[in-house]
Automatic annotation (TrEMBL):
Superkingdom of the source species: Bacteria
Rhodanese domain location: 27-122
Protein name, entry field: Rhodanese-related sulfurtransferase
GO molecular function annotations of the record: transferase activity
Entries under PANTHER family matching the protein: FAD-DEPENDENT OXIDOREDUCTASE, PYRIDINE NUCLEOTIDE-DISULPHIDE OXIDOREDUCTASE
Source organism (scientific name): Desulfosalsimonas propionicica
SUPFAM superfamilies reported in the protein's UniProt record: Rhodanese/Cell cycle control phosphatase
Length: 133
């Protein structure tokens, strides 16, 4: 934990190395959107992103993370999500201590995610994917 904390300098945070926008997430070849909200929150409003075949959505509540982090692959980009980025930041730091070098905090929480999947943006993504095939 000490090494992770020592690496979190002004240069690190100032350059945004810990963040990933929803748009950049959608552009990746293969990633996981890790929802760390409570079971109750996820049951009330789930996130699937089925139109984004390159994104696998997983839900592991923050309080279950110490017992379940081994369910995550270390060789893939993991975008950690919660509404206000508090829990996602905590889980991000935890994952770094466990060797998850590709973990990022999904920037902007709910607002950024819902903006990125509005009809115009979603249609653009679908057309781009169709052109790639």
């Amino acid at each position: 934990m000490e090494q992770v904390l020592k690496s979190l300098t002004l240069e690190f945070f100032g350059s945004g190395q810990h963040k990933l926008t929803p748009e950049k997430l959608f552009e990746t070849e293969s990633a996981i959107l890790l929802d760390v909200r409570s079971r109750e929150e996820a049951a009330s409003l789930s996130i699937n992103l089925k139109a984004h075949e390159n994104i696998e959505c997983r839900h592991i509540p923050i309080n279950e993370m110490p017992d379940r982090f081994d369910e995550l692959p270390k060789n893939r980009l993991i975008a950690v999500f919660c509404p206000a980025q508090v829990r996602s930041s905590i889980v991000y730091a935890f994952l770094l201590t466990k060797g998850f070098e590709q973990a990022k905090v999904l920037e902007g929480g709910y607002n950024a995610l819902t903006e990125a999947i509005k009809p115009g943006m979603l249609l653009k993504h679908i057309r781009t994917e169709e052109q790639r095939r």
